[in-house]
Amino acid sequence: MSALARAADALFPPAPHVTMGEAPDALAAIADPAINLAIWQRRLAPGLVAAAGQLAHGAAGEIRLNVAVDGVAVAVSRALVTAGWPPVTALVADVAELARLAAAHMKTAALDLRLEVITGDACRKFHADHVPLRLITSYAGPGSQWLANADAEALAAGVLLDRLDLRQLLAGEVALFKGKLLTDRPIIHRSPPIAGTRQRRLVLVINPATAACC
Q1: CATH number of the domain bearing residue 103
Q2: Phi and psi at residue 199, in whole multiples of 5°?
Q3: What is the pLDDT of residues 38-47, one digit of tens each?
Q4: What is the mean pLDDT of residues 153-176?
Q5: Which range of residues forms the domain containing residue 143?
Q6: For the chain, how many structural domains are there in total?
Q7: C-alpha to C-alpha distance for 96 and 84, rounded to whole angstroms
Q8: Is residue 137 assigned to a domain?
């Protein structure tokens, strides 16, 4: 874990409904009914960090696919070329691996996949996803922001956001977010507001193919 991540963890009290770990098996905790967010605190390889940063600042738009898990690598490679993005081998391999992990936890053989360059305030309002599970990772730029359950309840009751503990994923970290279709206490989160900051994000979102995307 990076020093920044350790500092952020020390700032806020632990959330019992959230698990974190430095290995991919940390994501398995999402199967626990009491857990609504599982975070793999991974660090990207330097080569992928550099490639993702170049893509975030040199590409635009998004790639959307409905694809079988075993066809992700080929489909993403073709989609990158079609979109005019450079077919970065390391990125394709990582997306395919995360798709395999997501499918295992979602218990599905097909996925809805979105790889997007974000330059503004997409989904800036705190919300719960209308899906069973969603995997999100930011390859470049700031990660998703989330609230502990108690803070989410306080926000819904009218407490101002600046009085709550706003928590955030780091670039490279992988999270499984439990949505409304799987629990009555889904994780409340949002995309970080970046309009006017000149920041750009490269974000991967994976849902089970049968889930409505929002």
Answers
A1: 2.60.120
A2: -80, 150
A3: 999 999 999 9
A4: 95
A5: 35-208
A6: 1
A7: 20
A8: yes
Give the orientation angle of helix 89-106 with respect to helix 46-58, to 10 degrees.
100
- 42 within 8 A of 22, measured Cβ to Cβ: yes
Helix axes 89-106, 72-83, angle to 10 degrees: 130
The C-alpha atoms of residue 146 and residue 156 are separated, in whole angstroms, by 14
Tell me the pLDDT tens digit for each residue of 82-115: 999 998 999 999 999 999 999 999 999 999 999 9
Give strand pairing partners of 169. none
Rounded to whole angstroms, the Cα distance separating 124 from 118 reads 12
pLDDT attached to residue 38: 98
Q: Does residue 107 fall inside a structural domain?
A: yes
Q: The tokens of 173 are what? A: 């970290």
Report how far residue 145's alpha carbon sits from residue 193's, in angstroms, rounded to the nearest whole number: 9
* The two three-digit tokens of residue 34, written as one number: 């009491």
Contact 151, 167 (CB under 8 A): no
